[in-house]
């Protein structure tokens, strides 16, 4: 029973005996247990809880997720709600709890496979429910979903070392099992490499991890774990051979690994850590140097050992210098990477530019494996950006690796928002190229489910069916027919579907009557140049009875359509040419010329005259407004001069009164608030300086 079936089959445990006894029918004494709902109103699995608020929140979140699967915050809320279910997540937990959590994590990680932390959390939950085997299954799915996660590989290897410590073969021979899940990473292809006998190699668990993350710039935690595995087993030869690989890798902590390498070479016998072939090679070099010394007949064993050790360390010094150089080349790009993990938040422009430059650099360097590794790292950080997927696909195409192409685009259609179906359409073509026609068909069908009426998808889908079944075009025709009359698509899309369907019937199926019937469905409905051009061309390519009548009928529709006049005039001229070349009546031609050509000339001239008259009238109106504005300015200046004269006269009058009766100013003090203010004798009213509030009508009358 899968998780979905378990969720449906489960009955809530929160109904006790009292509830059962309360529902008993008089039918043989049988007790009828009330059936609890297995789904929420939105169709989501019912959480095991009696809390109505939790059920409501759970249902709301699932509703949002179904409509917009990219809502990361809502997924996180759902996971928090799942943790609050009654009974927890243990082997003794209610089956529905486990089913709900599995449904949730499976759906989330299908949408966001690059969230390595959630793979680890899922494996922890399965370990509680099913033990080590359950956790290993999730780890295996995780390292397919994000195969270049250093953290996830370290956690996986650590888990195996802790829980399978007594089974060395489990560690060294663990390989990916066929879990029935879709491979979502190109590195899964590398695990399927075959030797000359066609036998699939069985990589050790650590070797699988090394292929996935060993060339990362920050893989030191993984390499430390790998080295410690051999160190704990005191297998110094394997440890030394492994470190010889590690010191050649440009990485952040390359110097520390080199120091560890030199220390091992300095403390362990050379015959113990070197392979037989290496030991013999270095021994020959040491002996040759000793032979050059005439005073020495035969090199003592201790001296030979020291000389071999010196040669080994000397050779490693050259490797170290090369590794340092390669690390320094990449350091400026690595230093600019601020977010090496996946997140739904947009990247800033400097980060995107840095990835572009870094990819340019590695492609110039030309190391295919390092280029591939960098693309994989980039497409964790920049997974939502179509440009990097397309660039990766173009590089893979240059290698001629169709399987890698299929893997790249399979992941791209999961990560990039589905509003732009170009990646899905490219994947469909790649699937067809690989010979997997059913996978290609599914991509087209899924795209049309998301974007009904999408013209490019319809055309590609129909032609895909035509290519794979050239002798039976019914499936190809069905693609067009299924898109006719769809709701919620605009008129332009409807026009394109009708026109393309008619063209298919006409040019591919050679069904003239069927094509004409489809074209006629747009008569009086579509005002589209694309529709009319194809309709006219179709009828002109069908000679025979009523030829002139049929073509003329379409042209007549154009004349009275809603197309712009300039477009109708173009069609009109083509109509005249047609009647001249294929018509049977001079009178008909003359009438059309009078109706189509001559009025167009007069109308054009009339419009030209009208435009000139309108421009002249507008110029006269502007001149009139300018004259009015000048007159108003002059009038305002005259008023200002008169006002200044009145003010000056008023001031002189006040001064004169003060000079005649100076004692009146102080003979009686009157409260300004109660004084009667009559205004100056000049007749120009100023507001009182005392702050007395006068009625509003006073100012209106002044």
UniProtKB/TrEMBL annotation:
Feature: compositional bias, Basic and acidic residues: 621-641
Protein name: Pre-mRNA-processing factor 39
Family: Belongs to the PRP39 family.
Claim: Nucleus is one of the keywords in the record: yes
Subcellular localization, as worded in the UniProt entry: Nucleus
Top-level taxon of origin: Eukaryota
Ranges annotated as biased composition (Polar residues): 35-50
GO MF annotation list: pre-mRNA 5'-splice site binding
One cellular-component annotation, GO: commitment complex
Entry-linked InterPro entries: HAT, HAT_PRP39_C, TPR-like_helical_dom_sf
Originating species: Linnemannia hyalina
Predominant location category: nucleus
One of the protein's GO biological processes: mRNA 5'-splice site recognition
Any matching Pfam family: HAT_PRP39_N
Region (Disordered): 1-20, 25-50, 613-686
UniProt keyword list: mRNA processing, mRNA splicing, Nucleus, Repeat
